[in-house]
Amino acid sequence: MLQMVLQNSISGMAMGLLYGVIGIGVCLFWQTTGLINFAHISSAMLGAYFFYTFNVMWNFPIIIAFVLAVSLVALYGIVVLRGVVYKQIMGRKGGRLEFIVATMMLNIFLLNLVIVVWGGVPYPFPSIFGSPMNPLRIGRVAIQHHSLWVLAFTVALVIGLNYFFKRTLTGKALRATAQNKDTASLMGIGVGKMTALSFALSTGITAIAGILLAPIYFVSVELGGGIIGIKGFASAVIGGLTNPFGALVGGLLIGLAENFSVFYISSSYRDVITFVLLVFFLIARPQGLFKKM
Amino acid sequence: MQRRKIGFSIIALFVVLYPLLTTDTYKVYIMNRSLIHAIIAMGLVTQVGFAGQISLGHAAFYGIGAYTSSLTVLNLGFPIWLGFAAAVLVCILCSVFLSVPSFKLSGFFLSLTTIAFGHIVWVIIVNWQKVTNGALGVFNIPPIRMFGTKFNNTHFYYLLVVTIALLYLFIRRITNSFIGRAFMAMRDDELAAECSGINTRFFKLLAFGISAGFAGLAGAFYAHLSGFISPESFRFAESTKFVGMAVTGGLRHLLGGVIGAPIVTFLPELFRFPGWETYYMMAATFIILMIVVFMPDGLAPLLEKGFNKIFGGRDDVKGGSSE
């Protein structure tokens, strides 16, 4: 029994951390723009596809392929998302509704673009994060190598982001922009540059999450059109939307709740638990679990 | 004034003759599907464009309507018109669940809640196998019969046109009354509306109820048109498509839904050149994206302006003008 609980917790946590990483991207976007990007999850899809192209099709080394894929997605964030969609809509003082609809249409367009460029067939992801056949065994609990990689990436991301936000001048400028744009620009901070940076960070981090999700979901359009994006939003909302690290806790909560509901209730209602949590938090505690960073 | 009448009669003539102009029954079927979607988009124009309550979960009401009508007709032996009424009624009742969160939430958070609602309903449809037959769907739904004739696609087309005309009159009546003014006040500033003595909770319930009822009616039409329904038709992607139709047509225009739905449906067909088979969906979605990004008022005001230019006439824009 204990072993089953442990096993479920570990796999739930691995999944939850990934939702949390997507949630971090949502938070970073929300902090500087006050908007939610409904094409958010397509960054994950693009990241996975770019990585697959560079690593498997063109035989680049893993690290180069990874860096290239993430920076290409970040570039997409700056050029397409900010340069076209955001600037157009904000330029004429468009409302939130317009942004919601525009990003949703962008998501559908990107799905169709991916189908045209790469075809609709899912690609198997190379087992660079360890094969699922021989997991690490501690006692009778099996831990996938992939889960350890997820943990390592998340820890590195948290340390890196924390250093960036707390110690570097650019990070402090970004936080100042998030707090108050007008005051920040009076302090000599280039607000436009900072917004571009937050777009790049948000999409880039989601691309990392996409590459880490690919071994589970394959390199497929399921990454960009499925339910994972909503789970990223849910973890960000539970964490409080203003605190990126709160999103990780929200993601963990969702991952664990999901795995235990499969274990105790039924796998067919697995996704419902996320939505119930999301609606519960939106109504009962809209400010989330954590206060502003 | 005379020229305007000519303009209207040309459009009316085209609408009446459409199924007779083409011999392709598939085209009429697709047109019927798009008119069914137009009913939902009209409801969304009322709810999102006029009352300002966004919903990204309308595929759920569409599905509830389709399943209610077909299951009551098949299992309980209801006559079809009663199945339609049941579909509308059940959808309005379900909309109460969805509008309760809207008392507290707006904007992004309301849209997330409606997405959650849509997914939950979808999961229930798939997993409640005893009633809905799960992922396999419901078969052998009887078509509508009237005066002893079984409705084919052409009959259905005229039925839908008449229904949409009636619904248009209904919406126009509502938006030109105190209800419409309350909706617009609520959309523009909820707090100010409440201070002016508008019961925002009641009007939110009403807005959700109207559009859910429309979606339920559309679902019932769909079930009896196609004769077969499965959960695949009621996924989240459909909800985004409905909102996309409403926005392409024009969210702040009464005819937005009616114009947007056929355009979004037939746009991919325009790009079906030989050799372009893989690109046509991408091209169509790209154009819709561009319309949404660069023309936020949609196509309906543009078409209205064009109509006025050709046939002369007043420049007053009916319904909600932009703020």
Provide a compact summary of the structure.
The complex is a heterodimer of chains A (293) and B (323). With 293 residues, chain A is mainly α. In chain A, 76% of the residues lie in helices and 2% in strands.
- The level 1 CATH classification of chain A is Mainly Alpha
The share of residues in helices of chain B is over 70%
Radius of gyration of chain B: 20 Å
Largest interface: A-B, 41 and 39 residues
Structure notes:
In chain A, strands 1-2 form a two-stranded antiparallel sheet. Chain A has helices at residues 2-33, 40-57, 62-91, 96-118, 145-167, 169-179, 181-186, 191-217, 222-225, 228-239, 244-264, 270-284, and strands spanning 136-138, 141-143. Chain A is built from twelve helices and two strands; from the N terminus they run H-H-H-H-E-E-H-H-H-H-H-H-H-H. Chain B is mostly helical. Chain B has a domain at 24-235. In chain B, strands 1-2 form a two-stranded antiparallel sheet. In chain B, a hairpin with a 2-residue loop joins strand 1 and strand 2 (149-150). Chain B is globular, with a radius of gyration of 20 Å. The two termini of chain B are 29 Å apart. Classes of the chains: A mainly alpha (293), B mainly alpha (323). At the A-B interface, helix 3, helix 4, helix 10 and helix 12 of A face helix 5, helix 11 and helix 13 of B.
